[in-house]
Design goal:
70% helix; mainly alpha; disordered N terminus; single chain; 486 residues; globular; two-stranded antiparallel sheet
Length: 486
């Protein structure tokens, strides 16, 4: 239960408002950049799709009140699963790039051949090794790459349902359903469903961690939260963003000096979560080293590289081979020195740091989705039907994707304004989601960017957007005449 306004600690309110103001600042810039891109590229179809989306939501607002709440998760599963299965079946995405290295290593591991462990890729990026063993386990059971893709779809559906369940902690079930529905039809994740990326399984575990953290502060559920956070990080090391967000959220609550019981619950819960996560992470690393399953460990053995790429002002933080020699330096002190030298030189050569960060934000959060991961094999000039080419179909999928993306950003800006006007509360899930989004923005100002990396934060966008959707639904309900009983 949210405390009454007069009982809300003033410090908590002020700190929360600072977080919200910073997030709104980023959101407005990114929303502007997205709309600017639409005009610069003359892709006005985006506005057509945006109008259609708003119309669909209007229809949903009207008819959703006639649907029983129990059917919402069922509909989410059906819509989400069908779209992803259709894409996997229709688009036979070849395994390529780093995903091919990992897949080949998994095939070798499934056959008992561990020679792949000596490859530079795995001695440098040791955090990929647990995912190799996961794929090897699935290949050993099913012997098919198709099984990995089907499991991707299953993980994505679970994530979609969790969006609904977590959003229900903030708003009523109708608004939560619409938020989850938007994610289910959002093309960006669907385009990755046929790609053997570790993003699908890790995001599902991270979402489970967030769900169990907020569903109740009992030890059992906090333990589950820590366990799922560990599994998510084991598959893809992005847990530090969530940990930082939990930490900031906890600090905001306790600096507000609420009731002792609330402080005790929040601090003990977060401490237990961190303890479980750290213990399991250390245990997994030691076990994999001792058994020879990961002789060089499962850490990032060149953590400087992400910053070297991310702060390369010539490429706006996107990947390039310019400083690749740094990766091959074995001595960690020398490697760190060379990384600092490359970063310093890059920043000195930059004519405007402001322009660099502006362009980097635009490249990460404003550009169209990159289809090269899932559709590299498609001959874009081939005819699909009549005079419609594959290129036209793909472009329209991307335009629809951009329409959903812009709609979500408009909703999130509204949600943050609503939260800014309300007092903060110890059980404020939207405040945590706002912190998570802000931390994500800040992290990607510093490290390497790809549009594919937006995948991690999009569920938070949808869940936070449900706050604005709830307000709209309530307004719609009040302005719509009640249906007479008859």
């Amino acid at each position: 239960m949210v405390p009454e306004k007069e009982n809300i600690p003033k410090t908590m309110n002020i700190t929360a408002k600072i977080i919200l103001t910073c997030t709104i600042f980023f959101l407005i810039i990114i929303l502007y950049q997205n709309i600017e891109n639409v005009f610069l590229l003359s892709i006005f179809e985006v506005f057509v799709y945006l109008s259609i989306l708003i119309l669909i939501m209007g229809i949903m607002f009207h008819f959703i009140k006639f649907l029983p709440e129990k059917i919402f998760p069922v509909l989410i599963v059906i819509i989400s699963l069908l779209l992803r299965l259709c894409f996997i079946f229709l688009v036979q995405t070849p395994v390529n790039s780093d995903f091919l290295k990992i897949y080949n290593a998994a095939k070798d591991a499934a056959e008992g051949n561990n020679a792949w462990l000596g490859q530079t890729y795995f001695t440098t990026w040791g955090y990929q090794i647990p995912f190799v063993y996961y794929e090897a386990f699935i290949l050993r059971i099913f012997g098919s790459v198709f099984a990995l893709k089907l499991l991707n779809a299953a993980y994505m559906v679970v994530t979609n349902v969790l969006i609904y369940l977590i959003a229900k902690k903030c708003v009523d079930s109708r608004a939560a359903f619409i938020a989850a529905f938007l994610y289910s039809i959002y093309p960006a994740p669907i385009l990755l469903s046929s790609v053997l990326t570790n993003q699908h399984i890790s995001l599902m575990f991270f979402m489970l961690s967030i769900y169990f953290y907020f569903v109740s502060h009992c030890r059992y559920r906090i333990t589950l939260s820590g366990l799922f956070l560990f599994f998510g990080n084991l598959m893809r090391p992005e847990a530090m963003v969530i940990i930082a967000s939990f930490l900031v959220f906890t600090v905001i609550i306790i600096t507000g000096k609420p009731k002792r019981e609330i402080v005790k619950n929040i601090v003990s819960g977060t401490s237990l979560l961190f303890t479980i996560f750290i213990l399991l992470s250390v245990l997994a690393s030691v076990l994999l080293k001792v058994t020879g399953a990961a002789p060089d460990g499962i850490s990032n053995n060149c953590p400087e590289w992400k910053f070297v790429v991310g702060l390369d002002t010539a490429t706006n933080g996107t990947y390039s081979e310019k400083n690749a020699h740094i990766i091959s330096i074995k001595d960690s002190d020398l490697r760190l020195h060379e990384a600092r030298k490359a970063i310093t030189a890059s920043l000195k050569e930059c004519k405007s740091i402001y322009s660099f960060f502006w362009n980097k934000l635009k490249a990460m959060w404003g550009n169209l989705e990159n289809t090269s991961w899932s559709l590299p094999h498609i001959q874009k000039n081939r005819i699909v039907w009549s005079n419609i080419t594959y290129e036209k179909v793909i472009n329209n999928i991307l335009y629809f994707d951009k329409a959903v993306y812009i709609l979500l950003h408009i909703s999130i800006v509204a949600a943050c304004v609503i939260l800014w006007l309300k007092p903060a509360a110890p059980d404020n899930v939207p405040l945590f989601l706002t912190i998570l989004i802000l931390v994500n923005y800040i992290v990607y100002l510093l490290i390497e960017i790809q549009t594919r990396y937006r995948y991690f934060i999009m569920p938070a966008f949808c869940m936070l957007a449900s706050t604005a959707l709830s307000l709209l639904l309530n307004h719609w309900k009040k302005s719509t005449p009640a249906t007479p009983a008859g």
